[in-house]
Amino acid sequence: MEEFIQIGSSVKSCDLWDISVIKKSQSTASLIEIIQCFPLLEKFVFFGNSYTNSTTVKELLKLPQFLKLKRFKLGKITEEFDIETFYHTFLKKNETMDVVLCFDYGISEAYKQKILKIIDEILESNSNDFWPPYFSGQWDNELHEKLHALNFRD
Predict the structure, then answer these.
(1) Around 9, how many Cα atoms within 13 Å sit in the side-chain half-sphere?
(2) Would the pTM count as exceeding 0.85?
(3) For residue range 15-74, what is the model confidence (pLDDT) as tens digits?
(4) Residue 108, Ramachandran bin (φ over 0: left; ψ between -120 and 50: alpha; else beta)
(5) Per residue, what are the HEC states of 14-42?
(6) What is the pLDDT of residue 143?
(7) What is the 3-state secondary structure (H, E, C) of the chain?
(8) What top-level branch of life does the organism fall under (predicted)?
(9) Which domains does the chain have, with CATH numbers?
(10) Dihedral angle of Cα 145, 44, 72, 93, to the nearest 10 degrees
């Protein structure tokens, strides 16, 4: 984590795959703590473990660096991530950030239904009002293709 803080002031693009970021205290850094290391960040991709909790969405939406991102891709998302708040508070109004959310295959059927309800709303909406996110998970290929078509921008 300390290394991120040292180099973070000049980083504009950060891709982290299958890692855990460890703090001096030997605990795992949260998603918020990681993003805070990069004040100039434009692109953030993170596929890691144990990085979210019940307050992640609310904290994320308060970060100035997050709101300035051009691309945000998050993987291995578990049920702790408050997708309903994230969608209704941010994604429905987002016009500038390419958002890709990849949900863990171990999510419950109830959480999956919340996501599918949001996907239905996205597909039924006028996608010119916001930049539709792309959601990856265990649903049929037709949904993946429709979401990808809405999300894709030149």
Answers:
(1) 2
(2) yes
(3) 999 888 888 888 888 899 999 999 999 999 999 776 888 899 999 999 999 999 999 999
(4) beta
(5) EEEEEECCECCCCCECCHHHHHHCCCCCC
(6) 81
(7) CHHHHHHHHHCCEEEEEEECCECCCCCECCHHHHHHCCCCCCEEEEEECCCCCCCHHHHHCCCHHHHCCCEEEEEEECCCCCHHHHHHHHHCCCCCCEEEEEECCCCCHHHHHHHHHHHHHHHHCCHHHCCCCEEECCCCHHHHHHHHHHHCCC
(8) Eukaryota
(9) 2-151 (3.80.10)
(10) -160
Q: pLDDT (tens digit, 9 = 90+) per residue, 91-129?
A: 999 999 999 999 998 999 999 999 999 999 998 886 678
Query: Tokens representing 130?
Result: 């916001």
Q: For the range 33-39, what are the long-range contacts, defined as Cβ-Cβ under 8 Å and sequence gap of 24 or more?
A: 33/1, 34/1, 34/4, 35/60, 35/63, 35/65, 35/66, 36/63, 36/65, 37/1, 37/4, 37/5, 37/8, 38/4, 38/8, 38/11, 38/14, 38/65, 39/8, 39/9, 39/65
